[in-house]
Amino acid sequence: MLKPPVDPDLPHRVARSAAATEGAVTRTADVADWLDERRRAHRFEVERIPLADLDGWSFDEATGNLGHRTGRFFTVEGLRVTTGEGPSRHRWHQPIIEQPEVGILGILVKDFGGVPHFLMQAKMEPGNRDLLQLSPTVQATRSNYTKAHKGADVKYIEYFTEPGRGRVLADSLQSEHGSWFLRKSNRNILVEATGDVPVHDDFVWLTLGQIGTLLRRDNVVNMDARTVLSCAPLPDGDGLALHSDTELLSWFTAERSRHDVRAERVPLGGLPGWTRGEWAVEREDGRYFGVVGVAVRAGSREVARWTQPLFEPKGLGVTAFLTRRIGGVPHLLAHARVEGGFADTVELGPTVQYTPANYAHLAGPDRPPFLDLVLGADPRRIRYDTVHSEEGGRFLNAESRYLFVEADEVPLDPPPGYLWATPRQLTRLLRHNHYLNVQARTLLSCLTSGAVRLR
Amino acid sequence: MLKPPVDPDLPHRVARSAAATEGAVTRTADVADWLDERRRAHRFEVERIPLADLDGWSFDEATGNLGHRTGRFFTVEGLRVTTGEGPSRHRWHQPIIEQPEVGILGILVKDFGGVPHFLMQAKMEPGNRDLLQLSPTVQATRSNYTKAHKGADVKYIEYFTEPGRGRVLADSLQSEHGSWFLRKSNRNILVEATGDVPVHDDFVWLTLGQIGTLLRRDNVVNMDARTVLSCAPLPDGDGLALHSDTELLSWFTAERSRHDVRAERVPLGGLPGWTRGEWAVEREDGRYFGVVGVAVRAGSREVARWTQPLFEPKGLGVTAFLTRRIGGVPHLLAHARVEGGFADTVELGPTVQYTPANYAHLAGPDRPPFLDLVLGADPRRIRYDTVHSEEGGRFLNAESRYLFVEADEVPLDPPPGYLWATPRQLTRLLRHNHYLNVQARTLLSCLTSGAVRLR
After folding, report:
1. At what angle do helices B438-448 and B223-230 cross, to 10 degrees?
2. Average pLDDT over chain B, rounded to whole?
3. Contact between A249 and B2 using a beta-carbon 8 Å cutoff
4. What is a single molecular function from GO for this protein (chains A, B) (predicted)?
5. Residue A321: which domain range?
6. Helices (H), ranges, A138-289
7. Can you give the pTM of this predicted structure?
8. Tell me, what's the pLDDT at A101?
9. Which residues on A lie below 8 Å from B246 (Cβ)?
10. Side-chain-facing half-sphere of B411: CA atoms under 13 Å
């Protein structure tokens, strides 16, 4: 009746799925056509509208915060972030999305011929390039699945909310974008079904390797799918690394401790440096992002028409892990990043995570670390370079180039705030909450699924 | 040049230290006399004073918050906690300690004849029974070691702030009392010294087993020592348990997700249900705790005399793990607890954690779960029953009976919010942040040190 800490077979089955670039149900080559077909079946339209035309949404008279008349979904408020004290004190203000509920990002898994397959959904999100991308089986806020939308049921939700409907393979709380969300996290769950699973329209079974193939194409696999897939448990191997796990955890603890970050909610109205125009709340200098409104008409979403605010960044992001072999083992250069909305000061991000347009005015030592190394990398050193969309339910045209770049010249002892760790050291941390930010998880999902193989 | 994830010898060395009830340096029987001798050497006096006599501390005119004129140390503010929504909405108000800085609780470790010894300090804290108890090598707020006290240096601090002074054995962020601190956490660090370590007055080398012997006495080992010791890495064994680690983590994630806890700082002045008198800020019904003032005169603290506020609970706490054998393996009944000051909604606590006096007016199904089972337990089922003090730097006369009670009649499928887990499953989680609350860590330190052996 007793069980071992971890099912010893599971990591090997996941590895088999990652190695399978064709599946038992659908050919990889047919997925693009199927997505196009689903796109035609739903005829989505998204239109940018003035903020005043948002239906059910309004700016509070006292605070200027943007919220829905029901008090549900989310609000856009102001955030004042202060780091350090005395001469090293630094402070900024920004709008932030306040959505305290924990959503569910769940992928249903089922064995076909000894190879686990993942049930992916063709899901429309208003902010995504091409609108419809491959998404988790379930991608639901609590409002979604408790029917605040007054729309259709969330399909397959019972596998993730009713214990015993399947076998849990992974289940952890992971942060969303700390620059745009205040202390937002979602459950990232993989559940293996034991019995028959009916496959509804808009759903498809794919192996991890098939999804890896699709991750080599721009804007096909959505952010929510990427973060859940990064949590799939892979075999440990011998686990050798430049630093022991104890050293890695100690470094992380020291980074969390040394950063003194105070994030306080303040009114959106009168937020220093930001103004509200007809079409956007945005910065006077045009940098970072704006808060805009859209109207959406769609067939497959929970309700047929709605309007909502979205955050729209100013330009394409660049998100990259530098990699190098150490003692024959590939390592990634992790960065302990402060983002104002993190639940706990810092999380581990990729080496580089910037929107270059925001830093175009800087030169020399003021340039963000390692950014120019990535932007100017010899193509022969680039192991992966693909554009992906961020959360299309909250962000409009938020896209980043995701890269792995070989950088053997970066020393074993990098600058403060950076540390070399192996991919498996980082994915092991994904069993736990809030170690790795969502951008790092996207890049790790490319390794987990075999989209990238490091040399 | 590469390292394994964890030093494979370390857990066995820690186990040897836990098995050693005598040390290479000091006899266990001599520790009590040594503590008495240190107590006499310092001649501490603590006196209760009216709140108006606090020197350097005052109630802010606008907010009623209690703070120090330098803006350092900590403030006492109000907290409004709301859980649930709609008909299940529950709200309470309480004073809370706001001290956002991360302190260091560090114990220095050194090998004597193949057995790790731990450098313990005889340290005075104004709120502790007998004032002076065995404490970690270093127990310092950031204000302490950056000299806000304008007092003496913190001895041995360099081992914990300068990488490379020793070898890190464990290093994680752990919460303090979530009922009295707002999002407070400290680094819990064990560092093994490689070279000579000078032993100052007030310090003594003890094995884990010696400390375990002392943990069977009331009020000898302080809270900070207990929490650090709970993090000492022990061997895994075969790791068999009623639930796999994956199931345990999934249950914990679900518990964090299902609890909707909103904790907001509000002014201490006018806090509903609380009044400020000459001697205390306390509830009109006399329950829970009060905020009081003390004057302290001491020789061995960083400064020779000071005054400060302390939280004083109303009565002795009862903190207990129920235990039972499952498939021949001892398990503990963990409870997913909401405390208003936790960084993230819930942490795992002991089965029972209450101050019975606060619930004396309740009967039948309104009684706290399992409390009466502990209070009425047959003495033959009690494996451990010892009184320990909570953090004496912030709390006055805050003591709890800590118990392990055998309860084979509790079913394998306990009520929602409770789960059977093995001690090693729980201590493994202590490598990571914020899984186990400080009361659970005290009880786990009794197992780690061999003070309790479960049947």
Report:
1. 70
2. 94
3. no
4. lyase activity
5. 245-262+314-448
6. 142-145, 158-161, 208-214, 223-230, 245-258
7. 0.95
8. 86
9. 5-7, 168-171, 431
10. 4
